[in-house]
Amino acid sequence: MSVNVRPHSTAKPLWLAEEEYDALVRRTGHGWSQCADEQEWLAKLHYLRAGFKAGKLDAAQFEEREFRLVQGYLSRFF
């Protein structure tokens, strides 16, 4: 089974094998919010958003974790 970590992209969806997706989501090298590459970042965003949608996180938890994940990834470019 595969996971599309760009579910809203019609031009460039990114499908990852479930095993690869799980491995990327579980990476914690410098903390869970720090990502080594775009695939890891997209996998973790997808995982976080799926968890929120499933009710595993409340809105405040989700917003704080999503903010850290996005900020951590974008800080690489500035």
Count the strands?
2
Number of contiguous helices: 3
Task: Kindly provide the radius of gyration, computed on alpha-carbon positions and rounded to a whole number of angstroms.
Answer: 12 Å
What overall geometry do the principal axes of the alpha carbons give?
globular
Describe the sheet with the most strands.
Answer: 2 strands, antiparallel
Q: What is the arithmetic mean of pLDDT?
A: 95
Q: What's the number of domains?
A: 1
Identify the strand order in the major beta sheet. Answer: 1-2
The share of residues in helices is 40-55%
The H/E string reads EEHHH
Class from secondary-structure proportions: mainly alpha
N-to-C span: 36 Å
Topology:
Layout: E1 2-4, E2 15-17, H1 18-26, H2 38-53, H3 59-74
Summarize the structure.
The protein has helices at residues 18-26, 38-53, 59-74; strands at 2-4, 15-17. The chain has 78 residues and is mainly alpha-helical. The model has no long low-confidence stretch (mean pLDDT 95).
